[in-house]
Amino acid sequence: MWCDTFEQVIRLFTFSTEQSSEGINWYQHVHNDEVRRLTKQPHLTAIVQSRRLSLFGHIARMPDETDAKQILTASPTGNWTRPLGRPRITWMKIIQQDLKSSDLYMDDAVDLAQNRPLWRLMSTFGATHS
Fold it and tell me: Is 13 exposed, middle or buried (0-12, 13-18, 19+ CB in 10 A)?
């Protein structure tokens, strides 16, 4: 495994003045998708989504009395309205969008998060391999 990765890095950073099919020369323009394909790395947005879902699962497993869970599940009181201006996208709305991409609703996700190994598998593999 390490040897394969090392060979990929060597191929990526071959700085020769001759044109070679094995490496990338310093004067060549290389797209990020090509580097990501060669190194087999997921998109950065997928990594962020995976970590966000991981944190959501952690909070979902907390007891209801915990401050973090109370803050996320709280709703504004009475006749409160948001001031004029750009609507703020909350963390929970982003989580709902992430869950929607996995065909999950919030209630189902909270239930699924109680099973830590299954949630870990869903949040990491589902987000980075979609």
Answer: exposed
